[in-house]
Structure formats: structure tokens, C-alpha cells
Design brief:
The protein is α/β, with parallel strands linked by helices and 402 residues long. The chain is built from 17 helices and 13 strands.
Length: 402
Amino acid sequence: MSAKATAFVIADDPAYQPWLQAALGSSVECSFGRPDDAADLLGRLERMGKVDLLFCDFEDYNAQERALLVEAVVERFPELPVVGMGSSENATTVLTAMRSGARDFFVLRRDDAKLASQVGKLLRRASSASLAAVAASGGQGRLFTVVGAQPHETIAFLASHLSLCFAERARSGERVLLVDAAMPAGAGSIFLNLSPTYSLIDAVADVHRCDQTLVDTAFTKHSSGLYLLSLPEDGIGRPQMPADDFARLLSVLRSLFQVVVVAIDGQSGTAVSRAAIGQSDRVLMVTDQSILKSRQTKYLLRALRLEDVALDRVGLVVDNYRRRLGLEPANLSQLFDLPLLATLTTEGFNRIQAMNSGEPLFSIAPKDPYCDAVRKLAGALLVGESATVEAGGNGLLGRLFR
């Protein structure tokens, strides 16, 4: 379910309503009204919350009155695009509309074909200006990425537990978001026992209007206070997600949340990996002691390095650690040329029980060593610590890097 842009429409002639709805289709949801004056209009806009566009009719008989309304709106809401419209293209009327602050002007029943595309451009320009303002203000939250070479539930499991740790530590008013872009699709929502109606794919499509209002009305929220965006679990195959729009969305989300945790896997492609890694304060490369996983991790790192993706903020997390398997975390750290951030050990029964119940391991088995290790990892990430490890023996590493 993709959220629509919202527009408030001021028009005396009822013919504007079916015309706009037919021309804009499902891309914009229009609310029609006839405000008494500027104060009434400003009050309505404030009560509506987020409004993406204001359409205002300008006719020969009301142009000056409408100009006063638009001037008041532009002064109070300078980021809100105003679109003029009229039943004719009278040069004086159009000039009045543009001088009052309208960014474009359309003629009733004449500009049907170009209305939707021009409105889309207005929305994108308004969004770009908003993002530029955010960047200039420096209001950016922390972003941590959990990545595995191949799709596996351990990626979302670690990301969801890290996110819960961050939510526990959040001060009043601070918000934490989990963006689960890894496969299997929807694993994070399943592990948190959530059923989102608004997905990550929707958010990527709506990046031009992603703001606090959209977060409050569309994003899924866990009982812990953690917010979630995940891939829809009912799809077959990996959903298509434009890397540029995904990168742009992450930038917006960093301005709306104090901490964002992103889960991805290497099969998303290097463009998506670059989008997340490039914006991350810290990246957790998750692997285990198996030859298969370790080799896949090696190939992912090689592909990222060939694409000139900066890996200076990437650290290694060895999951499901078992003694005497031969591939020791210190060895993997040395040969991947990554610092070892954490070694995670858990009882297999506890992990499966937590996944199946939709309850975090913190609740199902609080004494499981995984819980303590993840909490320590979360604390280290927040304060910017990094682990230093010493290399061990070779074991099975000859098979890994031959």
C-alpha cells in the first residue's frame, strides 16, 4: 500500500473536483474547501497536518482575493508548493497568481495531459529543497548496517535485537528504526510479531514525501517503541528496489530518527550495499565458521572493494560460534582484513523458539549468552568503540582462501 500525496484545493466552481481527480488519478488525494479568509485557511492547513500541495483557483473576479490567501500561505508555509488554476489563461490573472507565490498555473480542461507530470516534478523539487535544508542543518541520526553475504535469517535476527537494544537506551523523545531490506523478506517483522501494512517498498516509492507525518501514520511500531520498515513477506522473489531512491530514503530517515539499523544481504547487489554502507557510522559484516559462509563473505568483500566501496567502517561479527570447528574468529578477522567486533554464541533451541514465538531472545531466554553479547555490542557501537584482536592459527583457512 503506497501512501498518496495530499492536496488541499480551493475552488468556487465544482467542475474542478472531477477534473483534478481524473487528471491526477490515484497519485494525489484531494480535499476540497472554501475558506472564509486567510486565517481560516491557515488554521485548516495546520489542523490537516502534512499537506503536500495547495491548489487555488484564480478567476478574473476573485484573483486579488486569492492572491491574498496564497501570500499568507507562502509566508507561513514557505515549503508548501502552491499551484494556480483557472478556467482561462487570462494573462493578467495568471500574472497575479504567479506573483502571489504560485509555482505553476493550469487551465481547466486544457492541461489535463501534462498536469500529473508537472505536479510530480513540483513534489520532487519540494522534496529536494527539504532534503537540502536537512543536510545544511546537520540534523542526522546514527545509522548502523548489518550485512551478510547471502540471504539468511541471522541477518534480521541480529538487526532486530540490536534495534531493541538501541530502543531500550533511547532517551525520551528519541526514536529508533529498523529497516529490514534483507532476505528472507519480512523476517524482521516476523521475529517482532508484527504485521506491517506499509512496507519498505512503499517507503522507497514515497521518498519524495517521507516526513514525520508519514512516519506517525504509516510506519509500523513495536510495543518497545521501535519502528519498522520491512520487505513484504508475501512476495515471491526479491522485490525490485531502485538503489538511488533507497539511498535517498536512508538520508531522509536519518533526519527523522536518532538511530537507524539497516539489514541487507549481498545478493541485493553492490549498488544497494553501497547506498547503505556509504551512509553508515558502522557496518557489521555477519558470517559464521562454515567454509561456505566464509567464502561467500570473501567474495562479497572483494566485489565491494572492486566497486571502490569504502570499507573503513566495516567490522566482523561471527555468529553461532562453536569451539573446535577450526575457523576461529581471530583468523577470519585477519584474513578478511576486518576488525572483529563481536563473537555471538547461542543455544539453537532458544533462537528457534524466539523466532517462532515472535518474542525477542531477551524475553524468551534472557540468560542466553547471545543476549549479553548483543547488548555489549550495541553499547560499543553507540560510544564508537572498536575491537582489536590478535590473529590465531590457520586451521581450515587454506580451504577458504585457496
